[in-house]
Amino acid sequence: MTGADAPLIEVEDLHVGFRTPKGMVEAVRGVGFTLGREKLGIVGESGSGKSQTGRAILGLIAGNGAVRARKLRFAGIDLVDATPRTMRTIRGNRVSMVLQDPRYSLNPVMTVGRQIAEAFLVHHRASRRQAKERALEMLRAVRIRDPERVYRAYPHELSGGMGQRVMIAMMMIPQPDVIIADEPTSALDVTVSLQVLAILDDLVSSRGMGLILISHDLELVASFCDRVLIMYAGRVVESCAARDLSHARHPYTQGLLRSLPKIDAPVEELPTLQRDPSWAL
User: Fold this and answer.
1) Which residues contact 23 (CB under 8 A, 6 or more apart)?
2) Where would I find the H helices in 91-189?
3) Does the structure show a pLDDT above 70 at 86?
4) Which residues have C-beta within 8 Å of that of residue 222, sequence separation ≥ 6?
5) Same structural domain for residues 155 and 76?
6) Per the structure, how many domains does the chain have?
7) Segment 198-207, tens digit of pLDDT
8) CB–CB of 51/39 below 8 Å?
């Protein structure tokens, strides 16, 4: 496969483990998938391994962690054995990651504009004036009404929704090929969440990028993504087209869907997910 049809990311038999006083604990066990210029959702409960899968791609695993894989590549580059210098040319430049809460991701003592401009200067030879112009352009792209004011603001002066838009602008300014969005709307209310997703959708589609959306929200992923991976206990238990998620076959996915409240079909008590130990094998 070559050219525009070639996958951006290839993952095969990915394992992520962490050394603990009680021994090695595997958070990701044998995960595999490919990503093209599409929107891929990874869904699962807390602790299912979905965030660690995304972090493993960028080498952002904690110091007590270890990553191994039969294949872990971006644009043909082996990420498992990549040198720190190679990873620096990829991380943030060609593959960016949007984290879930801007309150803990933005530097509180630097203005928003300086942080966005810095993300551009790290990866491009440009003057500070050019970086500022590019930062203002990205703030407008994420639909911030008064980009000049926000450029001069500090993170604590922004609402949650505006802070998340700033994070998206910062990650998009180097013009990456892939965005990994880890629960980008979990700290936001429903209306603002939809606005942020609409911005991501517009930017990803217009620029021909690949997107990995990590979430625990099945309905959100089904409506936003092209394909979905469902993870349980560090493994992918099911993969399907997003439009077919309501017809999922695995009992874990079916149980998650049944536990969702429905406005048009209210019930007194939502069913409890009955887990089978074999799902974790």
Assistant:
1) none
2) 112-121, 128-141, 147-152, 160-172
3) yes
4) 41, 228, 242, 243, 245, 246
5) no
6) 2
7) 888 988 899 8
8) no
